[in-house]
User: What shape does this take?
Amino acid sequence: MVRWVRALPSDGNEALVFGADGRLQSMVAGGWTVEYQEWLPAAGGWPEMPRRLQASREGARVRLVVDGWERRP
Assistant: This one.
């Protein structure tokens, strides 16, 4: 899930859907469908990063909202 939050495929077996803007819209991996609903603009050396996403699987749903990203040493 750590890679999904960063919008990074983990093993190449994911089904990826990209929007007209080139951003990842959704990913299906490990039985989960992850939908990227909002992106933070590139800033401070970071590329565009997910801000809001939802993951669902067999009736379970997880929503995540990211306030900001920072690097750790």
About this structure: The chain has one domain: 2-65. Strands lie at 15-18, 24-29, 32-40, 49-57, 60-65. The longest strand covers residues 32-40. The chain has a mean pLDDT of 88.
